[in-house]
Amino acid sequence: MYRRIFLQNTGRVLAGLLGGPLLSKRSSHFNLPFDAAERVIDPRDEAFWALVREQFPLTKERIYLNTGGLGASPHVVVAALQNKINELERISETGHSEELWQSIKEKAGKILGCKAEEIAYTRNATEGCAIVCNGLPLQRGDEVITTTHEHVGNTLSWLGRQKRDGIVMKTFEPAVFSAQQNVERIAQRITKRTRALSIPHITTSTGQILPVKQIGELAAAHKLWYFVDGAQAAGMLPINVHEIGCHAYATSGHKWLLGPKGTGLLYVRENALDLIEAKHLGGYSNAGEFDMVSGVFQLHPSAQRYEYGTVSTPLFVGLSAALDFLLGIGMQNVWRHNFALATTLREGLRKLEVEINSPQSPEEYSAMITFTHKRMARDPLIKFLAEKYFLRTRGIYEGGLNAVRISLHVYNSFAEVERVLEGVQAATEQLE
Questions:
Q1: Most confident region among 247-251, 298-302, 356-360 by mean pLDDT
Q2: Does the pLDDT value for residue 24 go beyond 80?
Q3: In whole angstroms, what is the distance from residue 419 CA to residue 392 CA?
Q4: So what's the pLDDT on residue 431?
Q5: What is the pLDDT at residue 32?
Q6: pLDDT at site 21
Q7: What is the pLDDT of residue 34?
Q8: CB of 169 within 8 A of CB of 146?
Q9: What letter would DSSP give residue 74?
């Protein structure tokens, strides 16, 4: 049934998406379950999720479990990217158009839960973090609270500003037993000098979903600027940045959104556009005319003010295809599937000789699980799993950990989860 639905929609959807014939005939044999978003898909519907898996060029010779580092792009994204490159190189044009940019941002708004006008294109979440960090009006001695489990892409921007401008970075260790504990740990660190919170939606180290909405309420109560690093959340689970209550939210296109490498999205709340200064300006940052002699210019009234210079149209057409892919499946369906896989893995790991470093409270579970073997170091375990069981995992050193991280997304299956558990068990047995 699903295959028939996929094929019936192929020509109509892909023609509209790509604006022309597909580069690869193979790509045209696959299509997205665009009607899936209208209904609840069982996470254990093997036929449906097997067809989703067929959308990806990922080799079947190994099991890919590192979406938290780099997401795999489906055929339709690769085809969209390649076709747009060929189209534009034949005429040597940028392909930029307000209509195209607006349409892609409207799709991104559906993923993030915001207006298209509140979205800026970036290269990745790191660039979004840098724009916010360096754009906030912070003075020497002002305090910013963040976690001890930040990704380097966010950490270095804040450390650089601390060194350059004398702001004070204060950290807290995320509690793994309850969401409320994390709100309390932040509250305990707020002083009269605190000006901002910089919090990951999901920690890259342990896959912990932090209570970003409750933290947003805390930030509002203390009149603090609130930034969320969403690199590990967008594309994994449903998001509504307006409900979170943050002033800004950054994410990458190349992880859970399954888009091309070199794409990212930055949300800046409409009433925070004049608060977060656009430090880097260029073509596309402005609205209307400008004059070098008089010094007159006007920033774009939307988040486009954070964009500058020529942008790769093919990359963002590829991101558009990735957004269509996820929206077609439905983010609720994506999350139910990812959560079910992670739950199965978590339950299996509890029976093995490992310590689960990820949170213990169900409301903070994500589709990433980090664990430490009780008798085997991280690197030998990763090597064993790669060489003997053909598993692509990721070592974790952030937050002082010496662990292994498993990321589970739409192209992963319950059979692959069982393979992970078999591999960890075999690694233990070969120690004896």
A1: 247-251
A2: no
A3: 12
A4: 86
A5: 53
A6: 32
A7: 52
A8: yes
A9: P
Q: What are phi and psi of 96, to 5 degrees?
A: -70, 135
The Cα–Cα gap between 149 and 226 comes to: 17
* Residue the block writes with tokens 């298209």: 116
Residues 6+ positions from 357 with CB-CB distance below 8 Å: 176, 205, 206, 370, 371, 372, 396, 401, 403
User: Contact 41/225 with Cβ under 8 angstroms?
Assistant: no
Helix then strand count (H, E) for the chain reads 14, 13
Q: Where are the beta strands (DSSP E) in 94-204?
A: 119-122, 143-147, 168-172, 194-200
Tokens of 288: 């209307």
- The total of other beta-carbon atoms located within 10 Å of residue 309's CB is 10
Query: What span, in angstroms and rounded, lies between the C-alpha atoms of 331 and 235?
Result: 7
Type of residue numbered 129: C
b (16+ CB within 10 A) / e for 88-125:
beeeeeebeeeeebeebbebbbebbebbbbbbbbbbbb
Helical spans, DSSP H, in 245-372:
313-329, 331-349
Burial of residue 141, with CB atoms counted within 10 A of its CB: 0-12 exposed, 13-18 middle, 19 or more buried: exposed
Instruction: Report the 10 Å Cβ neighbour count for 12.
Output: 11
Q: Which two tokens stand for residue 301?
A: 């009234």
Domains of the chain: 98-326 (3.40.640.10), 332-429 (3.90.1150.10)
pLDDT digits (tens, 9 = 90+) for 122-132: 999 999 999 99
Q: Which two tokens stand for residue 302?
A: 């939307």
DSSP 58-95: --SSSEE--TTT-PPPPHHHHHHHHHHHHHHHHHT---
- Residue 361's SS3 state is coil
pLDDT, tens digit, 9 for 90 and up, residues 117-169: 999 999 999 999 999 999 999 999 999 999 998 888 888 999 999 999 999 99
Residue 311 DSSP symbol: -
Which pLDDT score is estimated for 177? 82
Q: Which band of pLDDT confidence, cut at 50, 70 and 90, is reported for residue 7?
A: very low
DSSP label of 355: E
CA 409 – CA 342 distance, rounded (Å) = 9
